[in-house]
Amino acid sequence: MALRKILTDEDPGLHKKCRPITAFNDRLFQLLDDMHETLSNADGVGLAAPQVGVLRRAVLVLETNVPEGEEPYVIELLNPEIIAAEGEQHEAEGCLSVPGEFGIVTRPAKVTVRAQDRSGNFFEVTGEGLTARCFCHEVDHLEGIVFTDKAERMLTEEEIKAMSGEDSSEEETD
Ligand code: ZN
To answer: Which residues are annotated as catalytic?
Structure first.
């Protein structure tokens, strides 16, 4: 595995639509393994392939809603599609490609995604809260959409400072 450089918002690749994954081969596995390492190193909750310069429909999402005593785990989603969404949440959101900035984005409270795994098998997964937000945020990346395009407003420096003194779950970046 190797760390890959996380591109920032200024990179044109972050604003392009990504192509589907069609070959479930070693090259894909290498990309995914590198993305795992890069996400973990950056301490983020999600990462999309275009953030590391690969314009393909692959994302990682950290499932943080786990029973007490269990570790969060990373879900690999290839060619993900949101097939159901309900409710609404209205929280601060960040992105590893937009370091240090946060904005208020309205997202569904609960989201179900259909995707393929490394073997090309289809599966469905449902996430709530931060996980639902993260599914939406990462799928947006595959369409070339960065959260700043959707934010109702960006947080001020004072608000970010105040937030970092509170519950840290609101300031995780994906
Ligand atoms: Zn992002």
So the answer is: 138
